C-alpha cells in the first residue's frame, strides 16, 4: 500500500461512510401546517399571480380561496390555480352583468 493513501484499511472513505447521519423523514402534512400557521396568503399576494384581481373584493376572494385550498390539503401551486380560477370566474361574470 502506498503511504499517505486514504483508501487503505481505516482510511477516510470507510470512516466517512460509518458516520453518515440517517436521513431525516419529513412529513408533508406538518410542512403544510407550518405554511398555514406562518404565512397564509393575503389579498396583496393576488396581484402577483393574476391580473384579474383588479379591485379589493376580488383580491380578498383570491386570498380566502387560496387559504381555503391550503387548509383542505392542497399544495401552494394548486391553491394558487384554484384561487386564480375563482377570481377569473368572478371577474368575467361581473363584466357580463355590466354589459347586459
Describe the structure.
The structure is a single chain. By secondary structure, the chain is an all-alpha fold. It has one domain (27-99). The protein has 5 helices and no strands. The longest helix is centred in the last third of the chain and has 24 residues, at 76-99.
Considering the chains and any ligands shown, give keywords for the structure:
mainly alpha, 62% helix
Spans of at least 5 consecutive residues with low confidence: none
Largest sheet: none
The total count of strands amounts to: 0
Question: Could you tell me the mean pLDDT?
Answer: 77
**Total number of domains:** 1
Q: Looking at the structure, what is the overall shape? A: elongated
* Category from helices, strands and their pairing: mainly alpha
Tally of helical runs: 5
Please identify the oligomeric state.
single chain
> What radius of gyration results from the CA coordinates?
25 Å
Strand content: under 5%
Order of helices and strands: HHHHH
User: How widely separated are the two ends?
Assistant: 90 Å
How does the SSE layout of this entry go?
Blueprint lengths: L11 H7 L9 H11 L7 H4 L6 H16 L4 H24 L1
Helix pairs in contact: 4-5
Please outline what is shown here.
This protein has helices at residues 12-18, 28-38, 46-49, 56-71, 76-99. By secondary structure, it is an all-alpha fold.
Amino acid at each position: 500500500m502506498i503511504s499517505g493513501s486514504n483508501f487503505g484499511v481505516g482510511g477516510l472513505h470507510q470512516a466517512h461512510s460509518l458516520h453518515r447521519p440517517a436521513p431525516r423523514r419529513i412529513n408533508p402534512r406538518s410542512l403544510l401546517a407550518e405554511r398555514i400557521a406562518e404565512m397564509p396568503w393575503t389579498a396583496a399576494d393576488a396581484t402577483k399571480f393574476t391580473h384579474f384581481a383588479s379591485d379589493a373584493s376580488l383580491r380578498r376572494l383570491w386570498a380566502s380561496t387560496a387559504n381555503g385550498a391550503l387548509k383542505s390539503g392542497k399544495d401552494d401551486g394548486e391553491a394558487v390555480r384554484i384561487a386564480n380560477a375563482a377570481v377569473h370566474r368572478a371577474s368575467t361574470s361581473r363584466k357580463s352583468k355590466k354589459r347586459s
